[in-house]
Every structure is written in C-alpha cells, then in structure tokens.
Specification:
globular, 487 residues, 20 helices
C-alpha cells in the first residue's frame, strides 16, 4: 500500500510539473500535427487509412479523436491527455523502482526522471510513442504483479496488446512478456493471451488496412528513416558557457547513455536482488530497444527511456553503501531542484496568441510566424501545408483537401506525389503554407533518405503555376504563405 500511495503522489506531482510547462505551450513541431490533424479528422467522421494516410497504428487517432469530440479540439485538451499519460508513466516507474528500493528512494529517483523529462531538449508533444510506451510500462508492472495474483496477467496482456494498435512494433514486447510469463508463471499465460487478443478482436475490421500500412512502411519508411544509435539532430551548445548549456548537453546525451547504464545495472541487480525481476527488466529493455528500429537517434531513444531509468537508478542505489544512500538521495533531490530552476526559466517572455486550437503560449519567433499566417488563413479555409509541418492545420483550422498531412522528402515516392497532385488538381486549396527544405536539413534529420526523392518537382510546378506569394518569409524560418491565383 505504501508503494502505491508513494507512486500516486509522485504521479500527481509529475502532472503538475508537466502541465505548468506544456499545458498550452505551442511550438512548430514537425510530428505533433500528424496526430492532432488526424484526430480532428476522426472526430469529424473520417477513418485512418481509408480517408487519410498514416504509417502508424490507428489508436492514437481514435483516442484523441474521441476526446476532441467530447471536450473540444484545443491544444489544452490534447496536452492534458499527454500530461496525464506521462504522469501515469512516472507513477508506474516509481512503483516498479520501489520493487527494488525503499519507496522514498524510488520517489526521489522518479522525481528526478520527471524533471529531466520536462526540461529535456527533446520537447514533449502528442505522439503514438508516448501512448504505447505508457502501456508498455504498465504491462511490465502488471506482468510482475501476476506472479502474486495471476488475474493481473489479463491486465498485462490487455496493455501489451493495446500498445500494438498505437505502435505496431510493440508486438515485440507483447511476445516477450508472454515468454517471460510462460517461464515464470505458466498458469497465467492463457489469461495473458486472452487479454492481449481482446484489442485485436475489437478492431478486427482494421487489421487488413493496418497490414497494408505496415507493408508500405517496410518498403518506404524503414529505408529512409534509419538513424545510427544516439545521433542527435537538434542544435546543441558548442561551448559550455553557462550552467543551462551544460545541463542541456547532458540531457541530450542521456537517452543514449541510459541503455548502457541500464544494462550494467541489470547485471548488478541480478547479484543483489530478485533475479526474476532482473530478468523481467532485461527482457523488457531489449524488446523496447528493438521497437525503436530503424530510428535509434537520441529523440527516439528518449521515448523508451523509462525502463532504462528504472534499471540505472535502482542499480545505483543497490551498489551504494548503506551509509552513503542518504547522501545520494540528497544529491538527486538537489539535482532536481537545480535543473528545474535553471531550465524552466524562460530565456525570453512567452507571447500569447488566440488560435483555432485555443489560447496558446509560444516563443517570439513562433509567434511572428504563426500570427502572420493566422491573419490570412481562417478556420474552414482549404489549406495545404507542404511539405512537412501539419501542426498548422490544427492551429489555423484549415481543411486539408488531400489524404496526406505531410510529405517527407526522401521517403514518399512518385505514387504518393501523384496521389497528392490529383487531390490538389481536383480541389485546389485557397492557401498553401510552403517551405523549401534544404538538402542539408533533410540529410541531417533523415540521413538515410533516398536522394532521388528529395524533391517533389510535379507538386512544385503545380504550385508555381497556380499560386502567388502573399506572406514572404520575413523572419528567415523558410515558411511562405501562398494564395490561389484568381482564374
């Protein structure tokens, strides 16, 4: 009971911290708009695969679409769901860590994780990865509980099976947990399998479309999105000129370091604690690492960091002499306070802007870009964002006339370009938000991209012939607003 109470308190504290930073903070995320625009489509009666293109499982669109329909299509609603998910994730991390440490120590290490999560240079946003990784950690917690009460195996299976519908590679974890339960609590395996099968039975009509999407991924996504282990694509300080710069650099490196520390810690845990729990951590960590394929960059490793944080933090305390543990706990607490103070101080005052997605706060640069576009594009206007920043659909309320919320250079091929071009010709949008990605930018973010697919020349020609520039790029970020020429 004490473990559960401690974990609940940690989860509530994490939610408050997360909400204070990301509740209505708007930024020009490249990926968040994919899920928010898709969720809006679902809320208005459309379906993934059938009505709009996606390369992930459909569950994120279903989840946020249902919530948007019930509570409204605002950024605050979406971020509330995200913050609740991450708070539950922190609570589950605390509970799992407390299986090896005293609840107080588990709370301290998890609080530090929550602080790093909020202050990380990898910003938090709505994505299928957080949805599925919460379910993954819950599945691991329930699998461990099934050793004492086999009925928890149903919950473990339900969480693992549902995670697949958010992120299909989570099938690796689902199978792994099934193997572990078969080895440790054989009578519970059938209960686990029943729970895992239930989501598929409820969504059986979507299976053919999901399999077709996975086939597209295998021939297009995997080749274009390979990223070497630990690669960082964001901008990092070149000189440690301040405490904030040092913290930022360390936090950016952490996702690549944690798996290594976690692997070392698991070896130590096997010698000093429950070997069954160590085997659960080890197998789950390997499975979750495999789900990141083919993108093993720092940002992608950050999504699967909870399992490695559990192992690394618990291992650290287990090898620390008993007399020094209070000092280590005090150091972790002090680090939480310092990081929070240093990293959550805004470098500049945030601006406030009223958008179709509600009242949001954003940086000065993003305010200039977004407010300029919002002055022209009104909710309900037909809009095409090209090639890649679908968050503008959500912010403006613009209606996308195509099946594609984004076009990734180097991944989408001629078939995708022709499909988009057909939709544009049949229903030319009033507005186009256009950005020209440089080859250097593309190869930095997607280094394995097919260089023969870096340009969508037919779409570019269509835009050049039919649109005029109304808002040029005055702040140097590369986005221009185009308007359909009168006939």
């Amino acid at each position: 009971m004490r473990r559960l109470l401690t974990s609940t308190v940690v989860g509530i504290a994490a939610f408050l911290l997360l909400w204070s930073r990301y509740g209505n903070f708007f930024f020009l995320s490249m990926d968040e708009g994919i899920y928010l625009e898709g969720a809006v489509r679902v809320a208005r009666g459309q379906a993934p695969y059938r009505d709009f293109f996606t390369i992930t499982g459909p569950a994120t669109f279903w989840l946020y679409g249902a919530i948007f329909k019930a509570l409204g299509e605002t950024l605050a609603v979406a971020r509330a769901v995200l913050c609740i998910e991450l708070a539950l994730l922190c609570a589950a991390v605390c509970w799992l860590t407390s299986q090896l440490l005293k609840p107080t120590f588990a709370a301290i290490t998890t609080s530090l994780y929550a602080v790093v999560l909020v202050t990380s240079p990898f910003p938090l946003y709505v994505t299928h990865r957080w949805d599925s990784n919460l379910l993954a950690i819950l599945a691991i917690a329930f699998a461990w509980s099934a050793l004492r009460n086999r009925n928890f195996a149903a919950a473990a299976g339900l969480c693992a099976g549902t995670a697949i519908w958010f992120t299909p590679p989570m099938a690796i974890l689902c199978i792994t947990l099934g193997v572990w339960l078969f080895m440790q609590a054989r009578p519970a395996i059938w209960i686990y399998l029943a729970g895992a099968a239930l989501p598929a039975l409820l969504a059986v009509n979507t299976i053919p479309s999901l399999l077709q999407s996975l086939l597209w991924d295998a021939t297009n996504y995997a080749a274009a999105n390979k990223v070497s282990y630990g690669v960082l694509t964001g901008e990092l300080p070149h000189a440690f000129t301040s405490v904030a710069a040092i913290v930022k650099y360390c936090e950016a490196m952490l996702p690549a370091i944690l798996p290594i520390l976690g692997a070392i810690a698991i070896i130590g845990i096997r010698k000093r604690a429950d070997r069954k729990f160590a085997s659960l951590l080890m197998l789950s960590a390997i499975a979750l690492l495999a789900t990141a394929y083919p993108r093993f960059g720092g940002a992608q490793l950050w999504f699967i960091s909870p399992i490695f944080w559990i192992a690394a933090s618990a291992g650290t305390f287990l090898i620390t002499p008993e007399k020094l543990k209070p000092a280590v706990a005090l150091l972790a607490t002090a680090a939480s306070v310092v990081i929070t103070y240093v990293m959550l101080r805004p470098a500049e005052p945030l601006k406030t802007l009223e958008t179709n997605a509600g009242n949001v706060k954003l940086s000065r640069l993003h305010f200039v870009v977004t407010s300029g576009i919002l002055e022209s594009v009104r909710p309900g206007d037909s809009l095409f964002v090209f090639p890649y920043l679908p968050i503008f659909y959500f912010a403006t309320g613009g209606v996308n006339p195509t099946r594609y919320s984004y076009m990734q250079p180097g991944m989408m091929g001629p078939i995708d370009e022709k499909a988009v071009l057909k939709d544009l010709r049949n229903n030319p949008p009033k507005w186009v938000i256009h950005h020209t990605f440089s080859e250097a930018f593309i190869m930095k973010n997607w280094p394995a991209s097919d260089r023969t697919r870096l340009q969508f020349s037919e779409i570019e020609e269509f835009l050049k012939a039919n649109y005029k520039v109304t808002n040029p790029d005055e702040v140097g970020v590369g986005y221009r607003l185009l308007q359909l020429k009168p006939k």
